[in-house]
Specification:
The complex is a heterotrimer of chains A (266), B (224) and C (225). Chain A has 266 residues and is an alpha/beta fold. Chain A has helices spanning 2-14, 30-35, 37-49, 60-68, 80-88, 120-130, 142-154, 173-183, 191-196, 232-242, 245-252; strands at residues 23-29, 52-58, 74-77, 92-108, 134-136, 166-168, 186-190, 203-207, 214-222, 255-256, 259-260, 263-264. Chain A has 2 domains: 3-100 and 217-264, 3-Layer(aba) Sandwich (D-Maltodextrin-Binding Protein, domain 2), CATH 3.40.190; 102-213, 3-Layer(aba) Sandwich (D-Maltodextrin-Binding Protein, domain 2). Chain B has 224 residues and is an alpha/beta fold. The chains are: A alpha/beta (266), B alpha/beta (224), C mainly alpha (225).
Chain lengths: 266, 224, 225
Amino acid sequence: MGFIAKIACALLVALPAFGQQRYITVASTTSTEQSGLFRHLLPIFERKTGIQVRVVALGTGQALDMGKRGDADVAFVHDRAAEEKLVADGFFVERREVMYNDFIIVGPKSDPARAGGRDAVAALITLAETKMPFVSRGDKSGTHAAELRLWKEAGVDPAQGRGAWYRETGSGMGPTLNTASGMNAYALTDRGTWLSFKNRGELGIVVQGDKRLFNQYGVMLVSPAKHRHVKKAEGMALINWLTSAEGRRAIAGFKIDGEQLFFPEE
Amino acid sequence: MMLPLELRAASFRDIIKPLSLQIEAGPSTIILGANGAGKSVLMRLMHGLLAPSSGTIAWRRPGRHAMVFQRPVMLRCSALANVAYALRVAGEDETLAMGALKEVGLAQLADRPARVLSGGEQQRLALARAWALHPEVLFLDEPTANLDPSATREIETIIRAFDAAGTKIVMATHNLGQARRLGDEVIYLHQGRVLERASVDQFLSRPASAEAAAFIKGELPWVS
Amino acid sequence: MQEFPEILLDGRLWQIVLLSLQVSLSAVALATCAGLPLGAALAVGRFRGRDSLIVVLNALMGLPPVVVGLFVYMALSRAGPLGAFGLLFTPGAMVIAQTILILPIIAALSRQAVEDAWREYDEQLRSLGAHGLRAALTVLWDIRFSLLTSVLAGLGRASAEVGAVMIVGGNIEGVTRVMTTAIALETSKGDLPLALGLGLVLMTIVLVLNAAAYLVKEAAQRRYG
């Protein structure tokens, strides 16, 4: 049994080596992580401050929940209504608006529903009437919340089409786009994920440019009063940097195929 | 001296019917009987591997007794290490292992893995394992049943050496020639009962029971 | 033309591979240290509730990784009972989750192996005077190369699962990203060829580990019989 014990010791001793650096944990969304924004921003921040940022990418709902439980120091998400409520409830503090990007509706390039254009609400009404397959996140993420707001505005209850033309994947943006691509269906996505998404198949952008597709990102600190272990100084360093002139420049400087994805708050 | 071993109305399920007998020091005892007569179970009861369903089995004094099985189980290590293991478990000096191997003629195979030894060699190793412990009583359960004649002869030589060294031999067999060569007295077992107990000579030439006579005839068909 | 995946060009792939091995092998080592004695005790011991324990253990072999992940997440979360240790989203948390996941596999499979061997060894060992724990340890050690199969089954499960490490590790780049979570990530980014490529790397590693273990076992069996 001796050799097993030795291996165990060697491996376990090696593991804590990961925990030496100063770091904070950020609960964020798949859209920001998968677009590559963090890989662009964080090295700049780390070089400047020496603080490592560990990003756990989830849906906005899960990310907020993670912050509420105290498992993160900072939340970086996009569901303004939910964020403001949680600040009012005392779970988060120091909320700042960082940047925005926009949602788009993607669907078959041939657009069989004739839903294309600039009016997102009109497009959804058309999709519901023609019962064209639509794939929803269905995971209480920020994108899902935005989609539900649009359906409400359109006066359509998509739950009526559940099991028929309305499909909920209950998973992240990527898997949802994979599903839409496989079914040749319509879906609401953020532009960042779409631009970095490779398995598009027959899908293309159907609706963009509607003001209602505006996607606001906020950043906030988990309340140190509720969770004493929260790294307040390091967390605030990130929040302040993101909203500083330098941080705004870095956000604006992130491009995919020459296209700017996120627009810093003025 | 731990002997005699006394069985008082000892039974085991319906394999051994309640039986009372004493195993005394001195003569080599052969337990004879057909397959299924209960020889192995009786050996295991006496060795303590099985507890009697009823009755008692008691030694006069505590002491060391060993058993060699029909098919010995060897650990996956060298012949020497197998003997050393037995010594270690018994709380004895492990360096005695080599001497025991020499006694059974396996010294040159000491470093060989025990499991790759031939059947006869493994049985000799089992005897070396017993030898190292210097038991007062040695139980042998058909130790040569799976062996060829030359391996059988080697085993019998070693058993005689145990006897010469003062170890009481209790051996189950259904080989009448072996009983004659190694035994002094016979306990004849039939369907879980002791039908006869006699000297080897008397048992083989003048069996008292019809069952024993039939058994002897069956084992030595060319005699009559 | 698709650009060459950058993950293969820089050191990140190696870091991910190394972390995968560290996490899974640590979990296997811990689960082996606990699982083999547990399996041996169940094989050799006779006590009340033994049969139920064996059935439960066998059933736990099918434990869904997500459930284990969730359970460990709740325990290690700052709001949970072990939150003070700050282990969530660290490789340590992943080791804990995988250990829980594969402990039943190693224990149940080794229980079966020891029980089979025990039938052969029991009388001989008792005759030699080895009882209880000593006898169990003797059998464990003697069939150690057969037990390698149970350990490998545990390793296979640990290195293949994604549900538990995703939840308790968080798939943090450079900290808790392992092969399976990287594959899941690339799949969700729609980069199916890269995901498949990473999958092939993972399968190759598991194959090499199994081949090495198999060779050790075969050599040992030729040597010791």
